[in-house]
Amino acid sequence: MYIPHHYINKNIEEVKDFLKENSFGILVNQVEGKPWATHIPLELDVDEDGNDLLVSHIAKANPQWKYFEENDEVLCIFNGPQSYISSSWYTEEEVPTWNYIAVHVYGKIKILDEKEVLASMHKLVDKYEANSKNPISVGNLSKKTMRQIKGVVGFKIKVDTIQAAYKLSQGREHDHHRIISQLKEQETPGAAEIARQMKNNSS
């Protein structure tokens, strides 16, 4: 994606933390010559050689998986917080804009066997059940319920490139205090998180 140089985040560990915390992404490839996108959790993991991976699964009814082999490089898009920035919050006249965090991941995709899919589901469920009052485990589900695994196609993506855009009013540091204050008054989750990110970025 196009990222002006002052919005590029090259702190790979920070970006990986973002991917772990914002793992519900969009998988994009070509299906019959047209872009095809599916919204799914894409979990960051590493293989036995230490290579970064994204792991997930989609329904077999979704034709996207049938084109994984011929479109072996795929794009995964992850959206973070975003908020409108009014130029009335600036000390000098300027056009309004938008602050946001977004990460694009490119990589080679490979279909998993059933054993690998099951292992990935264990990890996925354990991660999101960790804070549940009554956590479930894939290992405790009945054989009848687990037959649904035959209706999905699991895959892993070996990460080649990570592009991270953190647009947080860089270049307007003299206005940050006022922008942050105004964002906090918006009382929306996106504005509050952008305010927090701006404060952390400038400290």
Describe this protein's structure.
The protein is of the alpha+beta class and 203 residues long. The protein has one domain (5-172): Electron Transport, Fmn-binding Protein, Chain A (Pnp Oxidase, Chain A), CATH 2.30.110.10. It is built from five helices and seven strands, in the order H-E-E-E-E-E-E-H-H-E-H-H. Helix 4 (176-185) packs antiparallel against helix 5 (189-202). The relative contact order is 0.19.
| Proportion in β-strands | 35-45%
Tell me, rounded to a whole number, the average pLDDT.
93
| Count of the separate structural domains | 1
Tally of extended strands? 7
First CA to last CA: what distance?
27 Å
The CATH class label is Mainly Beta
What are the low-pLDDT stretches, counting only 5+ consecutive residues below 50? none
The CATH homologous superfamily name equals: Electron Transport, Fmn-binding Protein, Chain A
How does the overall form come out from the CA principal axes?
Answer: elongated
CATH architecture: Roll
What is the CA-based Rg, rounded? 20 Å
Summarize the entry for a quick read.
It is built from five helices and seven strands. The chain has helices spanning 12-21, 114-129, 143-146, 176-185, 189-202, and strands at 24-31, 34-41, 43-46, 52-59, 73-85, 97-111, 152-167.
Task: Write the SSE topology.
Layout: H1 12-21, E1 24-31, E2 34-41, E3 43-46, E4 52-59, E5 73-85, E6 97-111, H2 114-129, H3 143-146, E7 152-167, H4 176-185, H5 189-202
Antiparallel strand pairs: 1-2, 1-5, 3-4, 4-7, 5-6, 6-7
Kindly list the characteristics that best describe this protein.
5 helices; alpha+beta; 203 residues; 35% strand; single chain; Pnp Oxidase, Chain A; 7 strands
